[in-house]
Specification:
The chain starts with a strand and ends in an 8-residue tail after the last helix. The chain is globular and about 60 Å long. By secondary structure, it is of the alpha/beta class.
Length: about 375
C-alpha cells in the first residue's frame, strides 16, 4: 500500500525551498503527496519563528493539523521553531520535532534514496529555488534564526551548478538562488559569490537568475566586480539589500557590520550603473532604544534612495540580546511606526510603477 504524505509550512524562501526538497524526497521514496492533511499517513510542518507573528502562525497551523489528522497518522514538526521556542511548541505538540536539519528524515522515514541525494523538483512555471547555503556569519542582536540554523554552511559550487543544469534540462527558465545571506556564500569553503555567479553565467540556455538577500557589508568590498557581473541580462533587475535601519546608532545596537554610508554607497552605485534595478530591503521598526530621530533617519534613507521597504515589527526573540535591551517600545508605538514606513513604501512603489511613469508623471506635483 502506497503511503500518503502532506507537507505544509510558513516563513522564508529557504523554508519554501526545503518543502520542495521534502516533497521530492517523499515522492522518490514511494509516497504519494496529498493536498489535505486529513488524507495523510504522514504530515510534516516546516515551521518559521524568526519573529513573533511567524511563530504565532506556525503554532496555529500545527494545532489545526493535529485536529484534522487521523489518529493513526503521524505529524513531524521541523524548521526553526523547535530550536527557537521549544517550550511553547511542547505545550501544543509532543511528537517528533527538530530544527532545520533535514537529514533527520533519513532516520524517521523508510527510504531507498537519502535526502542528500535528492534534487528538488518544481512546477515548470515556478522558479527553481536552489539553496546555495544555510546559516550565516552574522551575530545580529535581534536574530534567533542564527541559533536555529547555526554558522554558514555553503554548498560546493559544482553541486550548485549540477542542480541548475538539472533545472535547465527540465525546462525551467527561472532560477532563484536562496540563502540567508548570499553575500557570505563560500567564505567557509574558500570561494565566493562572485565566483559562483560567473560560473552560472557560462551555462548555456535562455534563463533568468534571481538573487536572494545580500548584506551591505559583504557587498561593499566587491561592489565594482559585483556590478560588472550583475549587469549581465541573465540576472533579474531586482535585488534585496537588507538595511534594517537608517540610524548608525541603531545599526550598532543591532550588531550589523556596516553603517549608513556603506548602504548609500552600495545603492547609489547600483542604481547609477543599472537604472532599472529595483532594490528591496528589510527594516525593523521599534528596535529597543529607537528614538523618534532614529526612526526619522530610517524614513529619510528610504526616501533618499527610493528603496522598497519591507518593514518588520520588532519582537523579543529567545536566545537574542535584544530581548533584554533597555528602551523597549510599546506595541502601540511599534505599530504606528510600522504603518508609517509601510505607507511610504506603498508611495514609492506607486511612483516607480509603469502606470505612473506612462500616464501620470506629467501631472504629478512632487510637493504634493
Amino acid at each position: 500500500m502506497i503511503k500518503k504524505a502532506y507537507i505544509d509550512g510558513n516563513g522564508c524562501p529557504m523554508s519554501k525551498a526545503e518543502n520542495k526538497l521534502l516533497e521530492s524526497f517523499f515522492r522518490k521514496n514511494g509516497f504519494r503527496m496529498v493536498a489535505a492533511c486529513k488524507n495523510a499517513d504522514l504530515a510534516v510542518y516546516n515551521s518559521c519563528a524568526c519573529c513573533k507573528s511567524h511563530e504565532d502562525t506556525a503554532i496555529s497551523q500545527i494545532s489545526k493539523i493535529q485536529k484534522r489528522l487521523p489518529k493513526s497518522s503521524k505529524l513531524i514538526v521541523c524548521g526553526c521553531l523547535p530550536r527557537i521556542n521549544k517550550a511553547r511548541l511542547e505545550k501544543k505538540f509532543q511528537g517528533a520535532a527538530f530544527g532545520p536539519q533535514l537529514s533527520m528524515f533519513n532516520k524517521l522515514v523508510p527510504h531507498t534514496r537519502p535526502i542528500e541525494k535528492i534534487i528538488p523538483e518544481f512546477a515548470k512555471d515556478d522558479y527553481h529555488m536552489v539553496r546555495i547555503a544555510d546559516g550565516c556569519l552574522g551575530k545580529c542582536s535581534f536574530c534567533a534564526v542564527k541559533h536555529a540554523r547555526g554558522r554558514l554552511k555553503s554548498r560546493d559550487p559544482e553541486d550548485v551548478l549540477r542542480e541548475i543544469k538539472f533545472a535547465l534540462r527540465a525546462g525551467h527558465k527561472k532560477i532563484d538562488l536562496v540563502a540567508s545571506d548570499l553575500g557570505c556564500y563560500g567564505k567557509d569553503i574558500n570561494t565566493g559569490i562572485l565566483c559562483l555567479l560567473t560560473k552560472i553565467l557560462k551555462l548555456r540556455g535562455d534563463f533568468k537568475v534571481k538573487l536572494g538577500p545580500v548584506c551591505p557589508n559583504y557587498l561593499q568590498p566587491i561592489l565594482d566586480d559585483f556590478i560588472r557581473v550583475f549587469k549581465n541580462n541573465k540576472f533579474e533587475r531586482s535585488l534585496q539589500l537588507d538595511i534594517e535601519s537608517g540610524s548608525d546608532r541603531i545599526l550598532g545596537l543591532m550588531n550589523r557590520r556596516y553603517n549608513v554610508s556603506c548602504v548609500r554607497q552600495c545603492v547609489k552605485a547600483l542604481i547609477e550603473e543599472i537604472p532599472s534595478l529595483k532594490i528591496t530591503s528589510n527594516f525593523i521598526v521599534g528596535f529597543p532604544g529607537e528614538s523618534k530621530a532614529d526612526f526619522d533617519m530610517t524614513m529619510a534613507i528610504v526616501r533618499e534612495l527610493s528603496v522598497l521597504p519591507e518593514p518588520f515589527k520588532f519582537s523579543k526573540r529567545p536566545f537574542t540580546k535584544a530581548q533584554h535591551m533597555p528602551g523597549q517600545l510599546s506595541n502601540k508605538e511599534i505599530s504606528r511606526r510600522y504603518r508609517q514606513l509601510k505607507k511610504l513604501g506603498e508611495r514609492i512603489r506607486f511612483l516607480s510603477s509603469s502606470y505612473f511613469k506612462d500616464h501620470l508623471r506629467p501631472f504629478y506635483n512632487k510637493d504634493s
